Amino acid sequence: MENSGGPRDRPRDRPLSGRVAVVTGGTRGVGAGIAKAFVEAGAEVVTCARRPPEDPVKGTEFVPVDLRDPDAVRAFFAGLPRLDVLVNNAGGGPYRRLADAGAERHARVVELNLIAPLTASLAAYEHLRQARGAVVMIGSVSGSRPSPGSAAYGAAKAGLESLARSMAVEWAPEVRVNTLTVGMVRTELSHLHYGGEDAIEAVARTVPLGRLAEPADIGAAAVFLASDAAAYISGASLLVHGGGERPAFLDAATANKET
Question: What's the pTM?
Answer without folding.
Answer: 0.92
